[in-house]
Amino acid sequence: MSDHTKSNFTKMDLLLDFAVGLELSRDRNGQEGYIMYHGTTLQNALNILHYGFKPSTDGMLGPGVYVTRSFQKAAAYPKSLRLGEEQAILRLRVRVGKVKRIDYQYHPQQKTWYQEGYDTAWVPPNCGMVPSGLEENCVRDPRRIEVLDVLNSDGSIKNLSTFGFMPGPIGYLCPPSVPSMLGYSRPPSVPSMLGYSCPPFVPPMLGYPYPPPGFPSYPYPYPTPNPFWAP
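== PARP catalytic domain-containing protein ==
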C-alpha cells in the first residue's frame, strides 16, 4: 500500500478508526471527551494540576501536549527518574476536536497539521512511526485536556492529600485556602479545566506575604504566575 493510499481516509473512516477501543467520558456540561493518559514525574503532575498543561515546543508531531490512549505507553514515561523523583500517570479526559491522521514518517503535515485547522494529530498503532507500535496523540490546545486522576504505575490512585489536592467528581480541586488575612482568598466557584479555578493571591496582610510554615507546597513553596494556568 502506498503512502498516499494509506492516508486516503474519508472523515467517517477516520472517526471510526480513531474511536476504536476508546472510552468516552462526559464532563458536567455534557461535553464528550476520550479517556487518555500522560506519563510524567510527580513534580510535573503537581505543576499540571495547579497551572494546567504547558505544551511541548516540538516533538514527533510538532508543538502540543502529547497523550495516549495506552496506559502501558504512558507508564513508560518519563524514560528515567532522577534520585528522589517519583513517577505519576495522569488519567485525562480529552476533547480531541478535529483529528488529523499522521501514519507515516515525513508526512507533509506531520508538524504543521494545526495550521490546517486541526485540533489533534493522531499516530495510529502499528504504522511504523512509534517503536512500541502503540498509538500517540498531540493536542494543540491544552484547554482541551482535563485531569481526572493521578495514578501510580499499577493503576491505583495516588494520595495527594499531603500536597493539598483532593480528587472530586469533576477532577482535582485546588489546595484548601487559608484565611485571607494570610495572603489567600477563598476559591471562587468559577469552572475551569481543573474543576474550579485556584484561589488568587490578595495583597499580603499582617506581615504574611506567603502561607505560614507548614502549609503544603504544591509544587513550589509559593505559586508563581504562569500563562498556562486556566483562570
